[in-house]
Amino acid sequence: MKLSNAPLQTDDASGSLLLILPLFLIFFLVFMDHLMLVPLGVVISKSIGLDPEKSGYLIAIYPIMAAFSALLSAPFSDRWGRKKMLLVLSFGFCLSTLGCALSYNVFTMFLFRILSAVFGGPIMPNTLAYAGDLFQGPKRVKAVTTVMLGFAASSILGVPFGAWTADTFSWQASFYIVAAATFLSIAGLYWMKPVKTGLSPGTVMAQYAELFKLWTLKKVRGLFYAQFFMLVGLFGLVPNLGVWMAMNMGMSATQVGLCYMQGGIGAIIGNQLSAYLIRRFSKAAVVSLGSIVMGIVVLLFTNLSFPPVLAGIFLAGMMFGGSIRMPAFNLILTETVPIYMRGRLMSMGMIVSNISMGFGGIWATPLLEIKDGRLYGMPIIGVVTLITTLLVAPMIYASKNIPAEVY
Predict the structure, then answer these.
(1) Neighbours of 218 (CB within 10 A)
(2) Which domains does the chain have, with CATH numbers?
(3) What is the largest CA-CA distance in the chain?
(4) What is the rounded distance in angstroms from the CA atom of residue 330 to the CA atom of residue 335?
(5) H/E element holding 65?
(6) In this structure, is the dihedral angle defined by the CA atoms of residues 134, 351, 268 and 190, taken in order, positive or negative?
(7) What is the spatial distance between Cα 91 and Cα 93, in angstroms, rounded to a whole number?
(8) Contact call for residues 291 and 328 (beta carbons, < 8 A)
(9) Lesser CB count within 10 Å: N end or C end of the chain?
(10) Rounded (10°) CA dihedral 313, 353, 28, 393
């Protein structure tokens, strides 16, 4: 099988962004559910009896289980089609988020966070694969970057709203709202146009074998290695941001959420700049630029003394760099294989990214310590983040020069 970058699906109405609105909405809600744990971590930990310095595990467990789920579900995206897959995942995600709202101790909260990850984790690769199926050329760039705006929108609107809801009512109310909105978004997904992947009939086990054979492709393997280093350092920082800002800067959940709002503004600017840069420079250059910017900002953020009012500016810079690189990287992945392999490729990419994020939360937590009401250990995490992000550029350029292979 020869890998091809040529799209196999066209649509006369593909210029309308309304086609991808349901994909954007579910993408937004999944990220809101995940990211609002950052400002709510301390509040939830105290409510369920978990030590605050261990609240990062509530965030770290999500990508680990999302990776496991993406592995199990990978063949079914190409086999069933994106629409059916997203409907099943979204319904399960809705029920799991409702379970989080009803949790009353450490066991039940971790159980439903795991289930939220099992259903919510594979939603991202399926939405991106669906956008890649429906669009081609410049419209594909626009579609992927628009869907990925869900991440920035969740930072600007979702996280602050979830934090404000928790401070005003209860942290449980934040999860009730996400569950209700997910239920409504399922209606939009139901009316999405199904896209045939062109996958030839075969056993599920054969498709699992093809999934793992992706690692035999040197180009794909190099991209996965780069993806690991894009995230493993950063996610030593992210799960612990809420506790750090609450303890060391005296911020409430709402204030942390407002900082994320500023971060989301940086993410939107980075996302739109990414679309501009992709049209004028190589995608590898865009990924490298975003990684370097983000690494430098994280280093300064964690190692400099500054007034809490500037925390949002640093978060904006961090998300700005991240949002420059991610659309370009996902486009590189999308265009590496033909449509009938795209779902499994994006699922394997999700597995790699989630393992990277989960490992980031695990390696960083033992470095942290609470003394006299303050959290210590963040500066070394910033140094590691810079080192890992600087490794991304040479790895991306090495993969760029590898020709497509016969699979």
Answers:
(1) 13
(2) 17-400 (1.20.1250.20)
(3) 63
(4) 9
(5) helix 56-80
(6) positive
(7) 5
(8) no
(9) N
(10) 50
